[in-house]
Specification:
This protein is mainly alpha-helical. The chain has 16 helices and no strands. It starts with a helix and ends with a helix.
Length: 385
């Protein structure tokens, strides 16, 4: 791991621990205040809407303001939006604040992932991205656990955001050019980027669908499948543990296998384990937990693999543009996944999230395989490098 990555990873750990605290304490607080589960779910959709908007607007802001100034702006907006939840207000205001928080966190992801891909050696990019995602999930889980044990400690999230600012100086260069923030020069350049990274974008879309369905509807599936609501949290934790274990292996292996093979394998594995979960309603608790770990090991690897492929396909001058497009694509998947799952017939309502994940990743794997084995070499750098 390169030395410039160390403060960046510390920043990620602190920032995502704060986000984990907020992600758990806010819904608990809203439930105590009497808001309905449907309203709380709507706030989750608002967050993804903000992520989509942040991905669209983030590139322009970073290009104009530079990395350091943009980081301070995103941190300030994120802290202000979440601090507003401590004040009494109307649900519409809460929804607007959730959109703002989502836009800010998307901007932070854009900066962090662009910088990480800039400093990563090509031979170790996926390994560094896998380590990054392990830290993301570990920090989020830690923050969630702390907030669940002591709800009032959510106030410490503001302190964590302030502490994260300690690492921005050494993490981000002051000049935009040092981080390859040059805008796309013409429409044809953007079209060329989209063509060369089409496989990565398909993976980003599948990752968004998978993560949103899992986080948004996974607890409901677990409650129905395990016949015990108290085991839903363990089900989610087992999938996250599997994800972290899988990422520990995925990074190094994917650097050796190549991009196309890694993407298609991860998509196929996610499809298989998703359909296995959908068919496990009447299985034993231990069986479902094991499948959940296997699902996490493959599904949680989609985002870092797709991000690495996207950056490998993009010229250095389009680093910010590439990550912005990837975040927007993931946000679209995150918005679409639960909507499609909720539209399925009532007869499969329980299995719906994993049926949608399985279908999306299976289609994605077929697309990547076509790009890998049918498209002539050299026409898609995202699959052939």
């Amino acid at each position: 791991m390169s030395r410039p990555a160390t403060p960046l990873l510390i920043l990620v750990a602190v920032l995502l621990a704060a986000n984990g605290i907020l992600a758990t304490s806010l819904p608990l607080g809203w439930a105590r205040d009497g808001l309905s589960s449907r309203t709380i779910a709507l706030f989750g959709a608002c967050l993804y809407t903000g992520v989509l908007l942040g991905g669209l607007a983030g590139q322009s802001l970073v290009t104009r303001m530079g990395c350091r100034r943009s980081f301070i702006i995103f941190i300030a907006v994120f802290a202000a939006m979440n601090a507003s939840f401590l004040l009494p207000g109307h649900p519409v205001l809460f929804a607007a604040a959730r959109i703002g928080a989502g836009a800010a966190i998307a901007g932070l992801y854009l900066l962090i992932e662009s910088r990480m891909n800039t400093i990563a050696a090509p031979a170790h990019r996926q390994r560094l991205l896998a380590l990054y995602m392990i830290i993301v999930y570990a920090a989020q889980a830690t923050g969630s656990a702390v907030a669940g044990l002591i709800p009032t400690i959510s106030l410490l999230s503001a302190l964590a955001l302030i502490v994260s600012c300690m690492f921005w100086w050494s993490s981000f260069p002051s000049k935009p050019a040092m981080m390859a923030t040059a805008p796309v020069g013409a429409t044809r350049d953007l079209v060329a980027l989209l063509k060369s990274s089409s496989a990565a974008l398909v993976v980003g879309l599948a990752a968004g669908i998978s993560l949103s369905c899992f986080y948004g509807m996974g607890p409901l599936f677990a409650t129905a499948a395990l016949k015990d609501g108290s085991l839903a949290g363990i089900f989610m934790a087992m999938a996250m543990i599997g994800g972290m274990l899988g990422l520990a292996v995925t990074g190094g292996v994917s650097d050796r296998l190549g991009t196309g093979t890694s993407l298609s394998t991860a998509l196929l594995a996610t499809a298989m384990t998703s359909f296995m979960l959908a068919a496990s309603i009447d299985r034993s608790t231990s069986c479902i937990m094991i499948i959940a770990m296997l699902f996490g090991a493959s599904a949680f690897s989609l985002y870092p693999l797709g991000s690495a492929a996207m950056n490998a396909a993009a010229p250095a001058a389009q680093r910010i543009t590439a990550n912005s497009v990837f975040i927007v694509t993931t946000g679209l998947g995150g918005m679409a996944g639960p909507l499609v799952a909720n539209a399925l017939p009532r007869a499969v309502a329980t299995q719906a999230p994993f049926l949608v994940i399985g279908a999306a990743t299976l289609i994605g794997s077929l697309f990547v395989l076509v790009r890998l084995f049918v498209t002539p070499a050299g026409t898609s750098r995202s699959c052939h490098n």
